[in-house]
Amino acid sequence: MLKAVLCTGDDKLMVNGKKVVMVMPAYNAASTLKKTLDELPADVVDEILLVDDCSRDDTVTQAESLGIKTVVHTCNTGYGGNQKTCYKTALKMGADVVVMVHPDYQYTPLIISAMVSPIANGVFDCMLGSRILGTGARKGGMPLYKYIANRFLTFFQNVMVGYKLSEYHTGYRAFSRELLESIPFNENDDDFVFDNQMLCQVIYAGFDIGEVTCPTRYMDDSSSISFQRSVKYGIGVVRCSCETALHKLGWMKCEFLKSIEPRKDR
Length: 266
Fold this sequence. Notes:
Layout: H1 2-5, E1 20-26, H2 33-38, E2 47-52, H3 59-65, E3 69-72, H4 78-92, E4 97-100, H5 112-120, E5 126-130, H6 136-139, H7 144-161, E6 173-176, H8 177-182, H9 194-205, E7 209-213, H10 227-249
Helix pairs in contact: 7-10, 9-10
């Protein structure tokens, strides 16, 4: 199935004439990579890019054997650092739409059409696969403490940044080329708070965000941060949200927002 979704530059672009590149930020994903790719529909993605963040297993060997374009970090840059390479490389590949799918089999690629189509057709600039819409989170095994933290932090963020999302913490995301070229995501943190800083940039810049219901799987071979790192992440989220609110009020200059000119047409 995988070879069917890899096309050359001469092939017809699959979604409304837009080139769709799927990026996979990988770290020790050897045991789940093929399972993830086996669920990828054959009529949506034009190219696949995997960025390996100095894995200790044979993720790179597996990716190359499957014919996936692979970029390898020689040292671990962190989850945010990995995404920076993903997006910059995808833009160089000529992507019109970039969709991020984790190779740890936590999010299913089966709904990738719903993630990509609204962007390719100009309805939204950013799409999020929400685990909170519907009952996917708890049914999929999300630990109760993570679910409660997710709901509290999301409520807090909606109030602080002046937007309304069902969750800010999903790793299933898609972006338009215009959006990625407009926001300074390279200035964001290299750790997990990167995701929240990026959404704050998207919202502050005036881009439109859509959400679709996404089932999730919490399994033994799925990646998950420890409780201690979760606490650190939560503190980072609160700080990020407060900095965004203060920046919008003109009471401080937030580093990851200061170079953004909000769009006047939004």
